[in-house]
TrEMBL record:
GO terms for biological process: enzyme-directed rRNA pseudouridine synthesis. SUPFAM superfamilies: Pseudouridine synthase. This is RNA pseudouridine synthase. InterPro entries: PsdUridine_synth_cat_dom_sf (IPR020103), PsdUridine_synth_RluA-like_CS (IPR006224), PsdUridine_synth_RsuA/RluA (IPR006145), RluA_PseudoU_synthase (IPR050188). It comes from Paramagnetospirillum marisnigri. Residues 16-166 form the Pseudouridine synthase RsuA/RluA-like domain. One of its GO terms (molecular function) is RNA binding.
């Protein structure tokens, strides 16, 4: 990613916060399998300040869309409190295999991280896990597919992906939890929009909406999305 490319993905900027449209396939942190990651490119978002912004939360590598960055220490602390208090309005779009009965509902199913020797780790629904709650609304349907908006009340790892599977409609392109582990289709999960209360007095609330990535467009159009 070049500096111009990352600057072109800024959805919102003020003195406290930047909201970035993270591309699918780019990890936010360094890791054993992530030599290329977002933190390598954050200097381009300094906008003349001495230090680059920092991550206020995270998105999975294969999830596209709204990612919040704090521009200074006070902003990072305030953002951390907002996320911890569940005061951030996060809305995700997905395309799923099949679809749930009904048009809206809530998944309340605790999630537990488990490890298997030689197989890494996975998340599963388990009564011994952490509370996880996600509201969902079907926005459209097609033959064998559904377009769903998810509003997570909690922020657990892989929460939407596991709750979709638990609901009986795993995400299209989910190689970990979907029906086809060998799929070449990218994960159809987008952090579509985010809303935060003002971080400073006399400032408006923060809101940003991410565009639909190219790999999700056709499936969403098939499900009735108007392309806007």
């Amino acid at each position: 990613m070049t500096p111009d490319q990352i600057l072109g993905r800024v959805l919102y900027k003020d003195q406290d916060v930047i909201v970035l449209d993270k591309p699918a396939g780019l990890a936010v942190h360094a890791g054993p399998n992530s030599p290329n990651h977002l933190e390598l490119y954050l200097d381009a978002l300094s906008f003349g300040w001495a230090h680059p912004p920092r991550l206020a939360h995270r998105l999975d590598r294969d999830t596209a869309g709204c990612l919040v960055l704090g521009r200074h220490d006070k902003a990072i602390k305030r953002l951390g409190r907002l996320f911890a208090a569940h005061r951030v309005d996060k809305r995700y779009w997905s395309v799923c295999h099949g679809g749930p009965e009904g048009e809206r509902g809530t998944v309340d199913a605790p999630l537990l991280k488990v490890s298997a020797r030689g197989q890494g780790w996975r998340i599963r629904v388990d009564s011994a896990g952490q509370q996880a709650v996600t509201d969902w609304t079907v926005l459209g349907r097609a033959d064998g597919l559904s377009w769903i908006e998810w509003r997570p009340r909690t922020g657990r790892t892989h929460q939407i992906r596991i709750h979709a599977k638990h609901l009986g409609c795993p995400l299209l392109g989910d190689a970990y939890y979907g029906p086809d582990p060998d799929t070449k289709i990218r994960l159809h999960l987008l952090a579509r929009s985010i809303g935060l209360p003002p971080l400073s007095p006399n400032k408006p609330p923060i809101a940003a909406t991410a565009p639909v990535p190219e790999h999700m467009r056709q499936a969403l159009l098939d499900c009735g999305w108007d392309g806007l």
